[in-house]
Design brief:
By secondary structure, the protein is mostly helical. Helices cover 72% and strands 0% of the residues.
Length: 162
């Protein structure tokens, strides 16, 4: 199903919309989820370098809660619970991945590719959770699972001798 992107006026008409649309990243005409993930990368890099890991993870937990609210409000107003332009879910989940990974470009680039693949493909049980949980929490939660899959694959790759 092709869904028309909302206007910039709608995206910035309410604080929840601005957050849900990643402060404009979700307005990308193609691949808004990828645009949101790309926008999160430098933000995660900077914050990860400035904050102790525990504080960074605590901030991400707060951002998750804000994202639940923003996606709930915005999805209701759009009439589409998980509109493709709502990218705060990708942003928060990818920043969590960055908080855990080494601060090395190779690891982070691999994480970017894996995260996007898992977020798009939604392998089980991500697809099951996506159908089961609705509203803002559902929008945010499935991306956390994609982030978890990303970290699991990277952890397994790190254990491979070579």
């Amino acid at each position: 199903m092709i869904v028309a992107p909302p206007s910039a006026a709608f995206a910035f008409a309410h604080p929840a919309h601005a957050v849900a649309f990643g402060f404009g990243a979700g307005l990308a005409p193609r691949a808004p989820g990828t645009a949101g993930t790309i926008a999160a990368w430098p933000l995660g890099w900077i914050l990860g370098g400035l904050m102790p890991p525990a504080l960074f993870v605590a901030l991400i937990c707060c951002l998750f809660a804000v994202g639940v609210w923003a996606c709930e409000v915005t999805g209701r107003r759009l009439g589409i619970a998980d509109h493709p332009a709502m990218v705060v879910d990708e942003m928060v989940a990818f920043m969590l991945v960055l908080a855990i990974l080494p601060r090395e470009l190779g690891w982070q680039a691999a994480a970017f590719i894996l995260f996007r693949a898992f977020d798009i493909a939604k392998p089980p049980p991500i697809d099951w959770f996506e159908r089961r949980f609705r509203g803002g929490f559902g929008v945010m939660f499935d991306d956390l699972l994609a982030g978890g899959y990303t970290l699991l694959v990277l952890a397994l790759l790190k254990r491979v001798p070579g």
